[in-house]
Amino acid sequence: MLNDAVLHIGNIESVRGRVVEVRVNKSKNSSHLLYDGQIVKGISVGSYVKILKGFEELIGKVDEEFITEDKLVSQKDYKQEKARIKRILRLSLIGYFENRVFKQGVKELPLIENEAFLLTAEEFSRVHNFIKTINGKPDERLQIGVLSNETGTPIGVGVNSLFASHIGIFGNTGSGKSYTLASLYHKLFKCYGCKLGFKRNTKFLLIDFNGEYSKGNAITGHKKVFTLNTRLELHKIKPEDKLPLGKEVLFNVEFLSILADATEKTQKPFLKRTVELFNKVHKKGDSVGYFRGILKNQVESLLLMSDKEKSYQIIDYFEQVIDNEGTVELKRKFFEDLDWQNTNHHFYKRKINPTRQLSVAQIRETNIFKEAENYHFPTNDIDIIIHFLYVQLINDLIINKAKNDHIIPAINKLKSKTKDLQKVINFDSEDSLFNDSNFVVLDLNNSNLIIKKTIPMLIASVEYLHQKERYGNSQKSFFNLIIDEAHNILSYTSNRESETWKDYRLETFEEIIKEGRKFGVFLTIASQRPSDISDTIISQLHNYFLHRLINNRDIQAVERTISYLDKVSFDALPILPTGSCVLAGLSAQVPVIINIEEIPKKYEPYNKTIRPTDFWVEDDEDLDADTMPNEETAFSTNEESDDEDDLPF
């Protein structure tokens, strides 16, 4: 009883749902107490309080404290005026003890005059024991840091609770966001990297926009890095630096739609017809011969047309197929051979009178027909699919199934990306992305904007489908997609792309984050601008590591979409020191502010802030003293000069 009296701080004065007010005893206003031979920190904002309601032990966290004056009792009952002042704690109920285990949630509400107590060290430890029991077995513990206000208290989370979930790491630049990402995954690989089951059944793909994790041993030395570079000439790029995606990327409707930025109602159905045509042609024993037959039939239809405008458009498209590299000069040869009869609206053969419509025999003697007979597939797969796109467009125009203005933009967008795609994708490879390692980094630092926008979505779609297949074959398969600087591809406010493309891009990742858990797919995103990221994506995350956020829009985005935060943690976001963050979510029973544990320097990300003065003084002894500014005038101001010419304006 004596010990309980030491920890007793007051009684419940009001209960308003989860918000409870405690009237603090006058004797418990000191900052520290002596309990069981140890100094115990007194009650303050952010502390935990135990409320006894019969045999129930309810736990609350202090959100704020204030003083008020007791006006219900007459002044004569107080010896001193200051005795009228009451100290009130306003706290939120966060959980309860059951069988000596802390559980999150509200089981019961307290009653007025229930007693409130400080937690013992053992009870404090129970509140911060985040290791859960899954299927009768305790989760594996992974220590990630220590409490900021109790640096002797280590914080560990369950491996399954954390990594079998979607994770969000947010914070301004320089707040320690990238370090936290590196620390979490380094610790995971340190614990499990040598396990055979881990190597076989897990795959990690990190999309790195700034090259922070691709260099050296950042996170782990056992990784495969694809350095995607669009600045170099094609012949200078090593095959091993290209993504081994194979032909399935080009000859798949969904992937073509991504590359061509296709609209849903017109362009995507056209791409579907093109893929069907491709599959039909390549099922034939002599695919190139069958394709030549299609071209010859289209030439006959073209030369029997009565619509001049449409026929001239089709000639332009034939030139893209037959005269792809500009060596055949198809259009010049065409009009050397043929011309248009404006009166009767048909093509006719030059130097033959009268100018009658061409016969089938004459058509087969034309230059364009002969070029169609001699057609060969290009050596490059991207050029092949573009040829099929034009042939499908010609066919649609002949039968009036499509309009040129609706389809050509998709083809042109795909063509504009062909050179860049050849630099970053190996279409001839049949290798898996994870052939050499189960941890793959895509370094996009030297890629242009088109590749930075396209490749992450493309590779996410490809690997998501592959993981579905793997998971269908084995329920052990696990895939984790990690996106650093995620606002680059998950933003819903970008003005540099069409609304259709933006919706398609967001839907791709929103499907992964909403449905991926069923197939062993989990997403980790890190960003300095949570306000730019889709609310749907942020709200679907399970665990959050929130570093310093200063921008009001970012703070509001966090408040709007994350329900796990309490008032104390939320108010701390703008003032968190570098390396500290708020941990909240399913892996933590209560939101806590922690200092991320240090990892060896060689595993840190390559993103240190430079110290200019470290290299400003390099080799200063080699400088000619005559070229150095005079010490007395080097930092003089313009106020010292009477000459108008010396003024900075």
UniProtKB/TrEMBL annotation:
Residues 143-331 form the Helicase HerA central domain. Pfam families: DUF87. Residues 619-649 are annotated as: Disordered. GO terms for molecular function: ATP binding. Transmembrane segments: none annotated. Keywords: ATP-binding, Nucleotide-binding. It comes from the Bacteria. The keyword Transport does not apply. Residues 639-649 have a biased composition (Acidic residues). This is ATP-binding protein. It comes from Maribacter cobaltidurans.
